[in-house]
Automatic annotation (TrEMBL):
UniProt source species: Eutypa lata (strain UCR-EL1)
Organism ancestry: Eukaryota, Fungi, Dikarya, Ascomycota, Pezizomycotina
Family indicated by similarity: Belongs to the protein kinase superfamily. Ser/Thr protein kinase family. GCN2 subfamily.
SMART domains (alphabetical): S_TKc
InterPro entries tied to this protein: CC_SR_Kinase, Kinase-like_dom_sf, Prot_kinase_dom, Ser/Thr_kinase_AS
Start and end residues of each stretch annotated as Disordered: 1-30
Record has Nucleotide-binding as a keyword: yes
A Pfam family the protein falls into: Pkinase
All residue ranges annotated as the Protein kinase domain in the record: 54-402
Protein name: Protein kinase domain-containing protein
Length: 436
C-alpha cells in the first residue's frame, strides 16, 4: 500500500455503538463474540493480574471462550505522534503519546491438565510464527498465572469487521471498491498464514479487526493449526462460515478459502448468512439459485461524502437467507450514527473530484472472469480441489488492480470504484502541469 492521504473522509464503524440515542441507555449490548469495546465493568470485577501489571485496565468484551481487556502501558517518555487519518467519525480522543494501548485476552477456563494446556498454547505458538504481517493481529506477550493463559496483542481501535458491516449494511450495500479492498487485505493476511504452514479455520467478520487507519487484521487463532491438520471436533469454526469438508474432518487450506468466499458473499449481497437449513446446504452443494447477483449498479445507492448510504435499506436482502430477527434490526437502528461530516454543497458526495468516474469492467459485468459473482462462486466450490489458492486469488485482475489503486485502509471510503487516475498516478499529472 502506498502513502495515505489524511484528507480521506471518515467512515462509520463500531465507535458509534458506544453512544446510544436518548432513552436507550439500558438496552442490552449486541452479543457478537467480538474483540470490541461494548460496556464497562465495575473495578472490583477487573482481573487482578492485569490491574497489577498495567497502568490502566478496561473490560471491553467477551467471547465464547475468553474475556478481553484493553490495557494501557505507560511509557517513561512521550513518543513521536504518528501521522494518521481517521477511518471513522468518533467522539474519542486520540491515544495519549505517553501511553500505548494493547488488548489482552484471558481464556475463560484454567488449564485442565497438560494436554489441555498444550492445545491452548497452540494459539500463542501460531501467533509467534506470524509476526511481521500488516494483516495479522500481532502478538506482544503471553503468560500464565494460576493455570490461566493471558495473550497480549496490539489493540485495534476501530473494533471488528462484523460491527462495521452491521452499521453500513442496515443502511445499504457497501461500495464496490471497499468490498474489493476487504477481499484484498484478508487475502494478504491469509497468504501469510498459509505460506507459514498454518490454516485459520475460524475466518469470519467477528475475527477480523480494524486498526486506527482502517486496515484489516486477522485475529483469534484459537482454532488455527499447522498442516497437515489433525482430525478433531475442536477444529470446526462457526457454522455460518464452515466449509463442507470440515464436517468430514477433511481440513486444509481450501477451508479458509471457502470461509472467505462466504464473507464476500455476505458483504456483496448484503445478507445475513444462515446457520442451517436448506439454503445453508445449498451453498455447500454448488447451488446458488437463491443468491442474488453480486455485481450491482453502484450508482443505485446514494451515499454521503463518507460513503455511508443515505437511505436506510429496510430489506437488506436479509429475508433471502432466512433473515435476522426484527429485534436485532431494531437494536441496530437505535444506535446513533453521529459525527458524519458532509459538505454543505455536496450532501451526497456526488462531487468528489478525486474519485474514479467509471467502473472497471469487472465491477459492472457479472460474467467477467474477475467479477464478484465469478470469483465468489469459484471460492465456494463444493469440492476443495476446485477452489483457488490464495496465491491464485491475489493474481486475479480484480485484486491486483485494487492493490495498485488502494490509498487507504479497507474500511476507508475512496469512492464507489476507487480513486481517480490522477490520484493514483500524481507524477503524470505533475509532469503535464510542468509542460504547460
Amino acid at each position: 500500500m502506498t502513502g495515505m492521504d489524511g484528507s480521506i473522509p471518515p467512515t462509520p464503524t463500531k465507535y458509534q455503538l458506544e453512544e446510544m440515542e436518548p432513552g436507550n441507555k439500558d438496552q442490552a449490548p449486541i452479543d457478537r463474540r467480538a474483540i470490541t469495546p461494548v460496556n464497562g465493568m465495575a473495578p472490583r470485577d477487573l482481573d487482578e493480574v492485569l490491574v497489577s501489571r498495567f497502568g490502566k485496565v478496561e473490560y471491553i468484551g467477551k467471547g465464547e471462550f475468553s474475556q478481553v481487556y484493553k490495557v494501557a502501558e505507560l511509557t517513561k517518555s512521550a513518543t513521536k505522534p504518528q501521522q494518521v487519518f481517521f477511518s471513522t467519525p468518533t467522539h474519542r480522543t486520540p491515544p495519549s503519546p505517553s501511553s500505548k494501548f494493547f488488548a489482552v485476552k484471558k481464556l475463560s477456563l484454567p488449564f485442565q491438565g497438560d494436554k489441555d494446556r498444550a492445545v491452548r498454547l497452540r494459539e500463542v505458538s501460531v501467533l509467534k510464527s506470524l509476526q511481521g504481517c500488516d494483516h495479522i493481529l500481532q502478538l506482544v506477550d503471553s503468560w500464565e498465572n494460576k493455570n490461566n493463559l493471558y495473550i497480549q496483542t496490539e489493540y485495534c481501535e476501530e473494533g471488528s469487521l462484523d460491527v462495521f458491516l452491521s452499521l453500513v449494511g442496515v443502511k445499504g450495500r457497501l461500495d464496490d471498491f471497499r468490498i474489493w479492498k476487504v477481499a484484498l487485505e484478508i487475502s494478504q493476511g491469509l497468504q501469510h498464514i498459509h505460506d507459514a504452514g498454518f490454516i485459520h479455520l475460524d475466518l469470519k467478520p467477528a475475527n477480523i479487526l480494524i486498526s486506527f487507519e482502517g486496515t484489516l487484521k486477522i485475529g483469534d487463532f484459537g482454532l488455527a493449526t499447522s498442516l497437515p491438520a489433525q482430525k478433531g471436533p475442536d477444529l470446526e469454526g462457526d457454522r455460518e462460515y464452515l466449509a463442507p469438508e470440515a464436517l468430514r474432518s477433511e481440513i486444509g487450506r481450501p477451508a479458509d478459502i471457502f470461509s472467505l468466499g462466504l464473507i464476500l458473499l455476505e458483504i456483496a449481497a448484503n445478507v445475513k448468512l444462515p446457520e442451517n437449513g436448506a439454503t445453508w446446504t445449498a451453498l455447500r452443494e454448488d447451488d446458488f439459485s437463491e443468491v442474488p447477483t453480486l455485481t450491482q449498479d453502484a450508482t443505485a445507492v446514494l451515499r454521503d461524502a463518507t460513503g455511508m448510504p443515505v437511505e436506510e435499506n429496510a430489506e437488506r436482502n436479509a429475508n433471502i437467507f432466512g433473515g435476522e430477527s426484527a429485534a436485532a434490526k431494531n437494536v441496530r437502528r437505535n444506535y446513533n450514527l453521529r459525527g458524519v461530516n458532509r459538505h454543505s454543497n455536496d450532501i451526497f458526495g456526488l462531487g468528489r473530484k478525486n474519485d474514479l468516474r467509471e467502473p472497471p469492467d469487472f465491477m459492472e459485468d457479472p460474467n467477467h472472469s474477475s467479477s464478484l459473482d465469478t470469483v465468489v462462486r469459484w471460492m465456494l466450490a463444493a469440492e476443495p480441489i476446485r477452489r483457488p489458492t490464495v496465491h491464485e486469488l491475489l493474481q486475479l485482475k480484480c485484486l491486483s488492480w485494487t492493490a495498485t489503486r488502494q490509498r487507504a485502509g479497507a474500511t476507508v471510503y475512496e469512492g464507489n470504484w476507487g480513486p481517480a487516475d490522477e490520484v493514483v498516478e500524481p507524477d503524470s499529472v505533475d509532469t503535464e502541469m510542468t509542460d504547460v
